Amino acid sequence: MDKTWNNKAWFMVLPVLVLVAFNAIIPLMTVVNYSVQETFGNNLFFFEGVKWFQEVLNSPRFHASLLRQFAFTGLILLIEVPLGVAVALAMPRSGPWVAVCLVLMSLPLLIPWNVVGAMWNIFALPDIGLLGYVINAMGISYNFTSQPLSAWFTVVLMDVWHWTSLVVLLAYAGLVSIPDAYYQAAKIDGASRWSVFRFIQLPKMKRVLTIAMLLRFMDSFMVYTEPFVLTGGGPGNATTFLSIDLVKAALGEFNLGIAAAMSIIYFLMTLLVSWLFYTLMTQSEAEG
Amino acid sequence: MTSVKEGLGDKRGDILMREQTTPPPASNAAGLQSASVMSGRGREARFLWLVPTVYIIFLMLPIYWLLNMSFKTTNEILGGFSLWPRSFTVASYVEILTNPVWYNGYISSISYVFINTAISVSVALPAAYAFSRYRFLGDKHLFFWLLTNRMAPPAVFALPFYQLYSAINLFDTPWAVALAHCLFNIPLAVWILEGFMSGVPKEIDETAFIDGYSWPRFFVKIFMPLIASGIGVTAFFCFMFSWVELLLAKTLTSVAAKPIAAVMTRTASTSGYELGLLAAAGVLTIVPGAIVIWFVRNYIAKGFALGRV
C-alpha cells in the first residue's frame, strides 16, 4: 500500500512512545550505569570502564550458559516449527471441529508460566507423576531432578507442549487464507500433494511462519520461569539458561556489575538475531 | 515428525495412482472415489484427523494430571501413584476460595491484567493507524525500536524496574504491574493492529473523508467496526501475555497487590510442599484463560487470517 508522507502522524504515535520509553529507557540506562561502575555499598559508585564486560566475556560460566541457551533455542525451533506446520496441515478447514481444535490448542498458551512449570513438575515426578511413572515403568531410568539428560528432555518437552500451539495457530491462519481457486488450479494441473505444499501452501505461510519463528526465537531465548520452576537450573547447572544465570548473578549473588554487563551482552544478542528476522520479514512483506 | 511426513507421502502416492489409473469397475466405489477427489483431500482426509487428535491428547494430559492432583488429599498424593483420585475431595478448592490471601491474589492478577489490556489497546490503536497509513520521519526505526522492547528479556529489567516503580510510589499496586507490562504488550498490540489495519483498503478512509467525516468520528464509527475482530484478537493477546508473566509481576509487588502466581510460589516454598493446594490453585489460574478463549473462539482463526497473512 502506498502511504502518504505526513509528519503529523507522530501525534498518533506519541502516547505509545511516552509509555514505552518510560518503561524501556530509564531501566536500560540504569543497567548501563551499573555495567560500567563498581560499588562498595553505601551507594558509592566508581567508574570501571569495560572491566565487567571483559570479565563476563572471558568467564567459562557465561560461555557454558550461552551454549546451553543456543542448544535449547535451536532444538525448540527444530521441533516446534515442523510439528506446528504438520498439525496445522492436518486440521479441518471448516466445520464444528475447527473451534474445538482452536480452543483446546490455545489452552496451554494462557496458563501462567510458573503454573506450567509446577504442572510439569507434578506431571514428571518419577514416583507420582504420570510421565515419570510411565517412563520408569517402561524400564528407562528417568528422574529429572538428578539426571541432566532427563532434565533436558523434560524442559524441551515442556516447551514443545507450551508453545507449539502458537506455531499451529499462525500456520493455520496462513492456510485458511488461501483461496479455493488455488487448490482447484493445482488439481487441474494434476499437482501432487507435495507440490501443493511446496508451491502453494508454503509460500502463503512464509510470512506467518517468519513471525512464528521470530516469536519463538525471542521467547525461548529469554525463557526463565518454566525451567526455573521445573528444575531450578539443575541438576548442577545442566539447565541454567542465560536468564536463570542472570537472575542468579543479579539477585542471588548481588553482583550488580557482572549482572548488568551480562544483561547488555544478552540484550544485544537478542537484538541482533531479531533484527535479522525482522529484516527478512519486512523483505518478504515488500515482495507481497 | 518424520513418521507424519512419510505417512502423508504414502497417501499422496496413493492419490496420484488412483487419479492416473482407469475408472474402477464398481459403480459404488467410483462414486465414492470421485466424491473424495472432488473434495480435494482424498483418502488421506479420512485419517488426517488423527494428527490433531493425538496432539490435543498430548496437550490435555498434563492438565488432566493437574486436575487429578487437585482433587486428591495430601496423604493420597504422597501415598503413591494413582490414575484418578480414590478419596475425592474439594478441600483444596475450599481453602483457596475462603482464604483471603489466596483469593486476593486472583483479584489483583485480574485487575492489573485488565488495566494493562485497556491501556495497551487504546494507545496502540492510533499508533497502529499511523504506521499503517502514513510515512513519517523515522517511522521504520521507531517501529523496530518498539519491537526491540518485545525482545528485551524481562530478567534484564527486573532490578531497575523495582527501583523505578519504588521511586514513583507505585510499588505494590496493580498500576505498577500494568504499566510495566506495557513494555512488551504495547509493541505487540501495535504490531498486530497494524497488520489488521493494513488489510483495510485505503479507499475506505478517503471516501469517508470526502463524505465529510472528521478523523476521530471516522475512526470510531467506521474504522473500528471494520477491524473489530482485530481489536478482539489484540486484546486477547495483551490479556494472555499479561496474565502469564510472572517475573515482573512478582518483582513489583510485595503484599497488597501480590499476583496469584506469586502466592503460589510462596506456598510451595514456605508451608512445605502442598501439592494438592498448588494443583488446585493452578487449575483455577487456567479458568480465566479458558473463559477468554471461549469468547474469542470465533475470532482466533478469522482474526489470525485477517491479520498479517
What does the model show?
Chain B: It holds the Pfam family BPD_transp_1. Chain B: It is a multi-pass membrane protein. Chain B: InterPro entries: BP-dep_ABC_trans_perm (IPR050901), MetI-like (IPR000515), MetI-like_sf (IPR035906). The complex is a heterodimer of chains A (288) and B (309). Chain A is mostly helical and 288 residues long. Chain A has twelve helices and three strands; from the N terminus they run βαββααααααααααα. Chain A has helices at residues 9-35, 51-58, 60-90, 96-106, 113-124, 130-137, 148-176, 180-188, 193-221, 225-231, 242-252, 256-287, and strands at 4-5, 37-39, 45-47. Chain A has a two-stranded antiparallel sheet. In chain A, helix 3 crosses helix 7, helix 7 (148-176) packs across helix 9 and helix 7 (148-176) packs antiparallel against helix 10 (225-231). Chain A is globular. The termini of chain A are close together. Chain B has 309 residues and is mainly α. Chain B has two domains: 2-91, no CATH class; 93-306, MetI-like (MetI-like fold), CATH 1.10.3720. Chain B starts with a helix and ends with a helix. The interface between A and B is large, with 106 and 112 residues.
Keywords for this structure?
heterodimer; A: 288 residues; mainly alpha; MetI-like fold; 3 strands; B: 309 residues; 2 domains; 16 helices; 1% strand; transport (chain A); transmembrane (chain A); membrane (chain A); transmembrane helix (chain A)
